[in-house]
Design goal:
Blueprint (H helix, E strand, L loop, with lengths): L3 H21 L8 H7 L1 H17 L5 H13 L2 E2 L4 E2 L4 E2 L6 E2 L4 E2 L4 E2 L4 E3 L11 E2 L4 E2 L4 E3 L3 E2 L4 E2 L4 E2 L8 E3 L4 E3 L19 H22 L29
Parallel strand pairs: 1-4, 2-5, 3-6, 4-7, 5-8, 6-9, 7-10, 8-11, 9-12, 10-13, 12-14
Antiparallel strand pairs: 14-15
Helix pairs in contact: 1-3, 3-4
Length: about 250
């Protein structure tokens, strides 16, 4: 059954969760720990999960899922009691966050609203992501399946990740593509989602440049070229057709 050691561990985890909110939420600067504990939904969800997880680990029926259900109704954050969450997780705003049964989250991870750590298909066993330490996941991102998101990785907003993510990399797009920012390897809760590279736009830009170069090469070879300044005589004028409409009416 639950003992003093388990209660002390849960209390220590909650203290670290409150400290994470102070460190990573600008709105929490200058706010007392008591106020954060009372008014931050991400902290509420984690507090409830710490208790539900401890009960789940001791094979207590019904109560862990009941706590998770009530927490989802109050905060909009759904965390399965079996999910394993390390110290210092910060869930910013939190509405719509879903963390599945076999998900594992390391230390000092930051999740923004709308993030899903979900499964794929109806497979049993490990079917949810493993997120290692110091990872930041942007708003609306979907991490699906038993993938591993490496230490210090950064997932852009609305990214769909279905493959393992290398450590210290940035992933954007659908499906997610690993990229880098100016040769730097970002780590920690960097919320600058505006300056992420766009690999799809880069590819289109490269194709446009290549097409212009090919058109120029064909022109230098003496091939026929369309004259953009066509005369009025070359243009076939349209005339209005009178009479009943073939569509009726």
């Amino acid at each position: 059954m639950l003992g003093l050691r388990t209660i002390a561990r849960v209390a220590g985890e909650i203290r670290k969760d409150v400290a994470a909110a102070h460190d990573r939420d600008p709105a929490a600067r200058g706010v007392s720990s008591l106020e954060v504990l009372a008014a931050w939904p991400g902290v509420h969800a984690l507090l409830a999960h710490r208790v539900a997880h401890a009960l789940h680990d001791h094979d207590i029926p019904v109560l862990p899922r009941s706590i998770a259900y009530a927490t989802r109704a109050v905060t909009g954050i759904e965390i399965h009691p079996a999910a394993r969450i390390g110290d210092g997780l910060f869930i910013d705003h939190g509405m719509g966050v879903v963390i599945g049964e076999t998900a594992a989250i390391g230390r000092n991870v930051t999740l923004y609203q709308g993030v899903t750590l979900g499964g794929t298909g109806f497979a049993t066993g490990k079917r949810h992501p493993t997120v290692e330490d110091n990872v930041t996941v942007g708003s609306g991102a979907k991490l699906l399946g038993p993938i591993v998101v490496g230490h210090g990785a950064k997932i852009g907003a609305n990214t769909v990740v279905i493959k393992d993510v290398p450590a210290n990399s940035t992933v954007v797009g659908n499906p997610g593509h690993p990229v880098r920012i100016d040769g730097r390897r970002p780590e920690g809760p960097d919320a600058d989602w505006i300056h992420l590279p766009d690999p799809v736009a880069d590819a289109l830009r490269a194709l446009t440049t290549r097409l212009a170069a090919l058109e120029s090469a064909v022109g230098e070879m003496g091939g026929p070229q369309a004259d953009p300044a066509r005369t009025a005589d070359d243009v076939r004028r349209l005339r209005a057709v009178r009479g009943p409409s073939p569509a009726g009416g």
